[in-house]
């Protein structure tokens, strides 16, 4: 049985906390929001004649298709035995919601089917999820005054939240990158990295790399200067044992193992926009290991 949407309110409360640390702090999150939901965040009031059906496809494709079928049905829609009501399962019981007063007793006919389609779409996009959307919106507006974003369109607000869908500017990322653990801007491994990103990776690879280190495949709306925390590359040893054992014995073992084939993959801490990059011995090795890591999408697990 499908989980009733009422029980998902806690998920929306968690999502509102995710968004609280987002647009004003330079943090982008890979959360695509439906246009109708963005309109709700912008407090856009629609007229009674607004076509909610157009936005329903971004929320529930199956319901959208069903309502479109009813809207354009060539036969007698009365034969479908529909009324101005909708049933859903809740805690093992069937709950009926009336789209209008007395809707359970009002059949859908050729003359009123457009009203039915409109009211059903409104119910799905607004009435049914009102508690969830209100909870999310409350958290969002507690961080950002609605008057600050009212000039944006839903599409522009999505870019503010999740970054812009543009080609990643490697030089811009490089300009605002920090280094740690012995790496610096002119370290050979760092030079190899920028060369690989710029000249050997394609646009999709660069997007996967950015998602690997920041959890979002798109750059901040105003460039990497506004990425917070700033992107940082930290040097790590090429094997886990070398990285963890800092005792004299561990260092001696590491000395004798230095000629072994390095196997460690790059890893990341996306909360800190941190790339943990082993001190590879060649550009090709760096490219191979980095490509494998970003395609496996397992940076955090390898940390």
UniProtKB/TrEMBL annotation:
Reaction(s) the record says it catalyses: S-ubiquitinyl-[E2 ubiquitin-conjugating enzyme]-L-cysteine + [acceptor protein]-L-lysine = [E2 ubiquitin-conjugating enzyme]-L-cysteine + N(6)-ubiquitinyl-[acceptor protein]-L-lysine
Keywords, ordered alphabetically: Ligase, Transferase, Ubl conjugation pathway
UniProt domain HECT: residue ranges: 24-303
UniProt GO MF annotations: ligase activity; ubiquitin protein ligase activity
Enzyme Commission code: 2.3.2.26
GO BP, one annotated term: protein polyubiquitination
SUPFAM superfamilies: Hect, E3 ligase catalytic domain
Catalytic center residues: 271
Stored InterPro entries: E3A/B/C-like, HECT_dom, Hect_E3_ubiquitin_ligase
EC class name: transferase
Protein name per its UniProtKB record: HECT-type E3 ubiquitin transferase
Native source organism of the sequence: Geodia barretti (Barrett's horny sponge)
């Amino acid at each position: 049985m499908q989980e009733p949407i009422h029980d998902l309110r806690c998920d929306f409360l968690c999502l509102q906390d995710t968004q609280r640390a987002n647009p004003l702090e330079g943090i982008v999150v890979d959360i695509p929001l439906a246009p109708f939901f963005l309109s709700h965040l912008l407090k856009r009031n629609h007229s009674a004649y607004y076509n909610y059906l157009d936005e329903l496809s971004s929320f529930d494709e199956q319901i959208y298709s069903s309502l479109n079928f009813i809207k354009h049905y060539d036969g007698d829609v009365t034969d479908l035995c529909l009324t101005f009501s909708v049933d859903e399962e809740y805690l093992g019981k069937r709950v009926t919601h009336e789209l209008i007063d007395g809707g359970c007793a009002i059949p859908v006919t050729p003359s009123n089917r457009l009203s039915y389609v409109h009211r059903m779409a409104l119910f799905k996009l607004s009435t049914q999820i009102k508690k969830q959307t209100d909870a999310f919106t409350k958290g969002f507006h507690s961080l950002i005054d609605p008057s600050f974003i009212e000039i944006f369109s839903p599409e522009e607000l999505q870019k503010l939240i999740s970054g812009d869908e543009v080609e990643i500017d490697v030089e811009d990322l490089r300009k605002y990158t920090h280094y740690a653990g012995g790496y610096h801007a002119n370290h050979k491994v760092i030079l190899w990295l920028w060369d690989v990103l710029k000249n050997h990776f394609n646009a999709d690879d660069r997007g996967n790399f950015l998602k690997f280190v920041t959890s979002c495949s798109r750059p901040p709306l105003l460039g990497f200067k506004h990425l917070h925390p700033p992107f940082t590359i930290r040097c790590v040893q090429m094997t886990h044992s070398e990285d963890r054992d800092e005792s004299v014995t561990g260092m001696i073992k590491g000395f004798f193992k230095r000629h072994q084939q390095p196997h460690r993959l790059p890893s990341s801490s996306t909360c800190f926009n941190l790339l943990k990059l082993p001190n590879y011995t060649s550009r090709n090795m760096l490219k191979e290991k980095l490509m494998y890591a970003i395609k496996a999408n397992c940076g955090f697990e390898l940390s």
